[in-house]
């Protein structure tokens, strides 16, 4: 009798059941909500993968700068680190606010950072950026005095090597964000995100102006020294441009050949 009476009772709704069901509840008579879930899911996956790739590249380049280059006497000043850290924190925030496109693409976003395309692109970009930093260090050291002695324990003191490496590495970080932002066909393109591309373009232009020594007061504020001659200034500009262009071409070739 107790079992029969228990079966007749209406099951009670537990606390939290409505909260779990509400995101998947639609009052419409169509299945448009399913399409919205798929679109947003793909946008979220693409955003997550690109964030992984961007952070991985930034960490690899930073690890090289803070280990190998540090042993060669290359250091960054507090103003330099604070400025770049603040700017790229804003860029990370803007990237995280991506919105999906209204039209669902037939193409699927990469499901892993170790997919053929993403891994090849990431390692290729890392080698290109590392080569640019090595060349910047090499050409910068040739401008140092003959009696210059590297002391890792010394406090930061601006020199030509620090100036070249800082400008090249900052441009590399901008390139990493711009090149690895996925955009189409999963979410809004880079140029549809006005605040994002203006932030990236403004930072890149500022690096070019600093390398061209258009405003020496800006360079002094960033703890950058004056280039000893025109040749080394042109070398720095060429490293910035070629590093960005070659990394962009490599990523697009990998995307064309290895995308899923």
What does this structure look like?
This protein is mainly α. The protein contains 9 helices and no strands. The chain has helices spanning 2-8, 17-21, 32-71, 78-95, 116-141, 160-180, 194-212, 216-221, 230-258. The radius of gyration is 25 Å and the shape is elongated. It has a single domain, classed as Up-down Bundle (Calcium-transporting ATPase, transmembrane domain). Helices cover 66% and strands 0% of the residues.
Relevant terms:
elongated; Calcium-transporting ATPase, transmembrane domain; mainly alpha; 260 residues; 0% strand
CATH class: Mainly Alpha
Question: Into which percentage range does the β-strand content fall?
Answer: under 5%
- The helix content is 55-70%
How many separate domains make up the residues? 1
Order of helices and strands: HHHHHHHHH
Number of strands: 0
Q: What is the structural class?
A: mainly alpha
Biggest sheet layout:
none
Estimate the mean pLDDT confidence.
80
CATH architectural label: Up-down Bundle
